[in-house]
Amino acid sequence: MILMLDLSCNHMKFLTEYLTFQVKKRRGFVNITSDISKLVSKSKIQEGLCLVNAMHITASVFINDNESGLHHDYEKWLEELAPHEPVEQYDHNNTGEDNADAHLKRQIMGREVVVAITHGQLDFGPWEQIFYGEFDGKRSKRVLVKIIGE
After folding, report:
1. Less Cβ around it within 10 Å: N or C end of the chain?
2. Using alpha carbons only, how large is the chain's radius of gyration in Å?
3. Number of domains, the chain
4. What is the enclosing helix (H) or strand (E) of 112?
């Protein structure tokens, strides 16, 4: 392994953007890779990191394959782990909410991803793409995109 450090005095650049999503159903997955790629281009950062963060406790951002069978498998698996109904099974729902399952699903799927930027592009492995996961939809939710680098 060769470690190369560039200790020049270039100033770090950054871009902060907020994306808004409103999934029409209670649950769903949205491929946001192209949205994030456009922001990386807008940032003009060639080498750095891109953070994509779901800013709501019943939504997720994750990386995986864009394959509909896999998305269906996620839906079934998550519903088996944390079924929506009966809503009375969750103490959280005693507050008047009915979304305790959505909080648990978010915990499983994760809050954010960080992707390297190399030569001005997201540096993915084969088949990797970025998804917004919604577990308590029908309302607007934000996703933070923070890109830093040079």
Report:
1. N
2. 18
3. 1
4. strand 112-118
| E strand or H helix at 43 | helix 33-43
State yes or no: cis peptide before 83, omega within 30 of 0. Answer: no
Is residue 120 within 8 A of residue 41, CB to CB? The reply is yes
Residue 112's domain comprises: 13-149
Measured distance CA(78)–CA(109) in Å, rounded: 9
Contact 15, 120 (CB under 8 A): no
Specify if 114 maps to a domain: yes
Three-class SS state of 77: helix
Q: Is 80 helix (H, G, I), strand (E, B) or coil?
A: helix
- pTM, two decimal places: 0.91
DSSP SS3 for 5: coil
